[in-house]
């Protein structure tokens, strides 16, 4: 399993997931840079993603939705890209959205830093999400963010090997 550690720090409003992949940094980056690849692993395996807009340029808005295969219900999300240093760094604001990809009222927006570095013949990834306050972090923890993110990240090695 790629996920090697998960840390929550309520005092600093952070969630950090560490993972190790059996692929080069460039190959892992290519997954995030290509929406058709990314949608295969963004979200839990049972709730596939579809990226509508995807451009890893600072200031760009990426939009996506995930579809529940049983009910057909769609869950919308968006990113605003804040920094890109390919292939080692991607930062973005991440939020829940409505059907028009506007921020969903009452839902938190996190600031995310994804770092990729060569390690042990593969890639070490560090995914850090910072929430505006402890209540926002607790809200997503209660929604199952650790389980959802971990199951998504744990798909990456198999996808890259296939």
TrEMBL record:
Classify the source by domain of life: Bacteria
Kindly give the Pfam families that the UniProt entry links to this protein. AHSA1
Q: Which InterPro entries match?
A: ASHA1/2-like_C, START-like_dom_sf
Give residue ranges for domain Activator of Hsp90 ATPase homologue 1/2-like C-terminal: 22-160
* Gene3D superfamilies documented for this protein: 3.30.530.20
Q: Which family does it belong to?
A: Belongs to the AHA1 family.
**What name is this protein filed under?**
SRPBCC domain-containing protein
């Amino acid at each position: 399993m790629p996920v090697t550690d998960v840390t929550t720090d309520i005092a600093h409003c952070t969630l950090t997931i560490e993972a190790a992949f059996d692929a080069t940094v460039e190959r892992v980056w290519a997954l995030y840079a290509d929406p058709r690849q990314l949608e295969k692993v963004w979200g839990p395996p049972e709730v596939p993603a579809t990226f509508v807009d995807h451009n890893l340029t600072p200031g760009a808005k990426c939009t996506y939705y995930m579809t529940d295969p049983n009910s057909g219900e769609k869950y919308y999300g968006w990113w605003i890209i804040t920094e890109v240093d390919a292939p080692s760094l991607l930062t973005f604001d991440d939020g829940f959205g409505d059907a028009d990809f506007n921020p969903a009222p009452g839902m938190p927006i996190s600031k995310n830093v994804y770092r990729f570095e060569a390690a042990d013949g593969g890639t070490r990834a560090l995914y850090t999400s910072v929430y505006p306050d402890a209540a926002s972090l607790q809200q997503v923890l209660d929604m199952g963010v650790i389980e959802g993110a971990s199951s998504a990240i744990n798909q990456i090695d198999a996808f890259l090997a296939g």
